[in-house]
Specification:
alpha/beta; Glutaredoxin; 5-stranded mixed β-sheet; Thioredoxin-like_sf; GTPase inhibitor; coiled coil; Phosducin_thioredoxin-like_dom
Amino acid sequence: MSAPPSPTLSDSELLDSLEEAGFDFASDRDRRIEALQREIKQVKNLKESDNGRVVTFVEEKLLIERMSKERYVLLHFFHNDFSRCKIMDQKLSELAPQYPHTLFLRASVSDIPFLVSKMAVQVLPCVMCFVDGKAVDRLIGFEELGDSDQFTSKVLEFRLKQSGVLPTDLSLASNLSSNLVPIKTDDDDVSDDEERRRGGRDRDRGARKGKVGIRNGLYNEGSDDDY
C-alpha cells in the first residue's frame, strides 16, 4: 500500500497519487455538477416562491399563469383609492405568513379587466378563493366580517377557512376541497331551478343593501359599498 501523499507535494504529484489510488475524476466531477445544479434550483425556487406574503401583480397574463401553479390561491381585487381595500390588504398580510401552502395575491381592478369581467366583480374589496384552479368562494365587502372596519384578522381567518383555501392539515384540506362547489361566473350556464332559487334568495335578502350570497357572486345596483 502506497504511503499517503506529503502535504508538500506539488499539484501534479498530488494528482498522480490520486490516480494511483484509483480516484474516479469523472464520477467526482458529475457528482459536483449535480450538487451545484441542486443548489441553483433551490435558490431559484426560493426566489420564485411567493408563499408567506401578499404578492402584487400588474400584468394579467402573468397573474393567471402564477395562479395556475398553486393549489390554494387567494386573490384580492382592490382599488388604490378605497380605504376598505387597504384594510383588507393589511389583514391578508397578517395571515399570509401563517399559511405557506396558500398563495396570497392582489391586483388592481384596472390591471386585470378580463378577470374582473370573468368573475363578475362589481363590489370592492373582493377576495376570491381558488382551490385546484376553481373559484370556490368569494368574500365581498365587510358584511360577513361584522360590517365594520374594525374586524380582526382572526375573524377574517375564520371566514376564509370555510372555503378550504387556508389549509393547515393538507390531508384534511384535500378532503374538504373535494366537496367544494365552484361558484358561478358571468358566462356559466344557469338552470331554471337555479334561477328560481336565486330569485327567492334575492327577495329574502332585499333588505341587505341589495346583495346576495357569497357563492353566486350576484350584485344588485344601488349598493353603497366602495365600488
